[in-house]
Each structure stands twice: as C-alpha cells, then as structure tokens.
Amino acid sequence: MAHLAIEGVSKLFGTTFAVRDFSLEVGDGELVCLLGPSGSGKSTLLRMIGGFERPSGGTIRIDASDVTSLPPERRPTGMVFQSHALWTHMDVFNNIAFGLKLPRLPKSEIRERVENALTLVGLGDYGRRMTTQLSGGQQQRVALARSLVLEPKVLLLDEPFASLDQHLRERLREEVRDIQQRLGITTLFVTHGQDEALALADRIVVMRDGRTEQIAPPSIIYRQPQTAFVAGFIGSMNFVQSRARNGVCEHPLFPLAVPVEDGPVTLAARPEALTIQLSDRPDAGTVHRIVDFGTHKMVDVDLADGSRLKAMVAPDDRVRTGMRVEPGFGSFFVFRDNALVHQSTPVKDAAEAGRLLPV
Fold it and tell me: pTM for the complete prediction?
C-alpha cells in the first residue's frame, strides 16, 4: 500500500493550462476516481503521476518520496491505458512478462508472478494465446495483469473500459474493484462516466478546466453538490432559473422559501425529488414524453417558458402524454454564480419520488 500526495501541480501547453494548481492526497488502499468532461485535465494529471508528462509546477510524492522528475520506469506506479497497447507479435504470457525481464529476474520468479497475475484477472489458461485471439475485455484484463505483475505501489487507470460495451464495462469494473480491494492497492481511476465513478470510488474528484470542483465520497457528491456544475454533471438534475426577493423564489410554479439575498438564483432538484400532480392552471406544464425503465418511469414535463423538467414516478403510475401537470420540488438546491447557497431538507429515499395524483 502507498500514500500519494499531489501538491500544487500545474501543466501548461503553450499558454494554456491543462491542469492548474491541483492538490490531492490519496490514502493507503484508497480508490479515487477523477471525473470530468473531455478537456478537464484528468488524463493529463494521471500521466503526470505516471511520469509520462512533466509538470510545469508542483510536486508529486509517493510515500513521502518526491517522484516529480523520475521517468515512468523508475516510479512505483503501474498504468493501464484506454488502448490496450499490447504487443501483437507476443503471446499473453510474454506481454505480461516483458516488464519483469528488464531487471533480469530469475525465470522461475517471472513465471510464478505472471501465472499469479493471470489467475488474478481470471485468465489462468490464456498464457499461450496470441493477443489477437482475445476479445476486447480479455485484452483489457491482460493490460491490467501487465501492470499488476510489476507490483506497483500506485495503480493508474485511464478510462480503461471506454471502448467496451456497457454490460462488459459493468462486469469489468466490478472485477477491478474486487481485485483492488483484495490487493489493497492505492488506485486512481480516470473516467468521464458518472455511473462508473459512483460504482467504483471511495472518493470522487470532479474536475473542470484543470481545476477541482469538489472532492467527496459518491453519496456526498450526489446528495450535497457544492457547485451547479457538479450538480448537473453527477446524475440527472432539473434546473430552473428565477429570482429571489424577500426570501421567496419569484417563479410562479415554485414559490419556495429561499433564505438568500435578493437576486438571480438557480433552483435545482433531482428527478426523484420532483413531484407532479394534475392541474388546470394556465401556466401548468405538459407531459411531453414518458420512458418506462421497468423499476420506474421517467416523465419529461414541458413548462410554459420552454424549459423541460424530469420527474421519476412509480412504474404503475397512470401519467399519460399530453396531461397538464403542476410540478413541485420535494427537496431542492439553490445556486448563485455556480456556488451552492442553500439546500432544503433532502429526500430520504426513492419512496418519496415524484408521483401523479389518482385520476
């Protein structure tokens, strides 16, 4: 196990910052996901930790040792890329063994470590197959084994499942999490998939434009987003633009108590916190579309101002397209200039999700 400390790290490409003054500590055996849209700097940061990019400023330490200037082969890190980067002229065994041959380890030790790594990733009988004979998921397992066989202190994964189909991604991320926990290896996992981050991480680092928006466990990131960007990037979120005056929101459908200074505000609520009921108000919303996910229905409601909200309702709900409905927020956030300025009492569970009154 290892402790990773990133202290004020920046990376300039020309005059543009890919990463700016980024700091993070990752504890022994912790799995941290770097989450953000394309161009947020997450892969550049991972490459700096692995030694594939040189920081323009700042320090990277592993177990208190400064590795900022060390090349990749001298760092106690293992990196798995989105592209498997396997040698097609070598079989699986030799792909994994390659890194062990450079320090001229005994053949018996190389064989033992490679076989152990193959067993760990569920490919115990695949050592003599050529990599071109493997599926995409199997190739990614080989890439993971190639990193783990070096016994790194820190494992770095750069969107390793991005090219795989959804079901395979879900299965592999569960396997990676199981392996990571069994080994107790400190891990950074880069992804732009919110579901992947929520399923894998002990903590999530949400990044935008090379900076940190929020660092917290998945449950906190989802239930207590500190910025409007995080609220919109993690899960589905409804946003309504309005103004606050004398502690009350001026939106006609959402006259909510908002104990903030007068001025423009953004109301936000999760679909499970949005209630809908039949209404004959002239400014009521209209049900535009209903998607049945089996466990619940997602209802799109169009408002008179052209905005659209999403409400989660029970699978047996009798809502229909074209119905006139009045939405309400069971719990909500208030943002101003991207920052959270107020949060109402949160919804306790899915049983409090939106519902349509009987007809």
Answer: 0.88
